[in-house]
Amino acid sequence: MKAELINESDIIEIIIYSCVAFLLMGFVLILFFYFSRKKIIQKELEKKDLEIQYQKELLSAVIITQEEERKRIAQDLHDDISSQLNIVSLNSHLLNTPNLTKDEVGTITENIINLTAKALDSSRKIAHGLLPPVLDKFGLDAGVGELCMECNSSQVVTVNYENTTFFDIKDNMKHLHVFRILQELINNSIRHGKATVISILFEDNYGLKKCSYSDNGIGFDMKNKDKQKGLGMKNINSRVAFLNSTIVINSAVNKGITVTFNF
Ligand SMILES: Nc1ncnc2c1ncn2[C@@H]1O[C@H](COP(=O)(O)OP(=O)(O)OP(=O)(O)O)[C@@H](O)[C@H]1O
Ligand SMILES: [Mg+2]
């Protein structure tokens, strides 16, 4: 009878201890899930913060570039167009001077003609810099072709350009981003890479267009963050974002650079 009682109280004790142990385990598990969830949320928030920071950097790069572009256009207009038109205006007023000889009228008229031609040439160059007419009228293939020809005629670099796809002129707004990306890549290859050969290839890629770019320049160390402080690359990234695409850039010291993106 006594042994049975002991057994019973033992069993009750075991049950109580087991319950307490389960409760403790449950409590620990709840705590574990609570803290790991908190950690995950914290990590997600940090990731979102980084994304917002990156978007802000891209936006500020776009704004700074826009302002610099405006400054450059204002300077070009002021230095090239306004100054020439001022002299044209002065010369035109001179024509009103009484008792001018035929020779004097001839000289002043020639001055006006020359200066007007220069002003026209300057305005054409400024407009060309803003939006190359070939790109606007004949599309990306002709625009890039002309850009490469201009580079080749400078004798600084040889640009090999190949296109195996067709560009619809209706997509010109999209293509302007591609053109600007290539302009910046070529600038960088010449300025930083000291490249002598550049290759550009457009091809079809599973219903999209693919652009592959490479140079034979000095390249750069991708891990060096100081090398990524310019506005050019940030602008390229924001243009790629406009194209709903992603860009893959690879470079190493003395290995040149390769860049690919779809659009
Ligand atoms: N093709 C390249 N060859 C070697 N280094 C390059 C090349 N492209 C970019 N870089 C390196 O990456 C850096 C960042 O380029 P990015 O175009 O962003 O800025 P930047 O050209 O210095 O200035 P910005 O474009 O604003 O005038 C460059 O300073 C250069 O060190
Ligand atoms: Mg640059």
UniProtKB/TrEMBL annotation:
Give the Enzyme Commission number: 2.7.13.3
The entry's keywords: ATP-binding, Kinase, Membrane, Nucleotide-binding, Phosphoprotein, Transferase, Transmembrane, Transmembrane helix, Two-component regulatory system
| One annotated GO molecular function | phosphorelay sensor kinase activity
Statement: the UniProt record of this protein carries the keyword NAD? no
Q: Which InterPro entries match?
A: HATPase_C_sf, HATPase_dom, Sensor_HK_TwoCompSys, Sig_transdc_His_kin_sub3_dim/P
Q: Does the keyword Transport apply?
A: no
- A GO CC term attached to the entry: membrane
Domain Histidine kinase/HSP90-like ATPase, residue spans: 176-262
> Pfam families of this UniProt entry?
HATPase_c (PF02518), HisKA_3 (PF07730)
Group of enzyme by EC: transferase
The Signal transduction histidine kinase subgroup 3 dimerisation and phosphoacceptor domain sits at 69-134
Q: Give the catalysed reaction(s), semicolon-separated.
A: ATP + protein L-histidine = ADP + protein N-phospho-L-histidine
Q: Which residues form a coiled coil?
A: none
Q: Give the transmembrane ranges.
A: 14-35
- Taxonomy, superkingdom: Bacteria
Protein name in UniProt:
histidine kinase
Q: Which organism is it from?
A: Flavobacterium bomense
> What high-level taxonomic lineage is stated for the organism?
Bacteria, Pseudomonadati, Bacteroidota, Flavobacteriia, Flavobacteriales
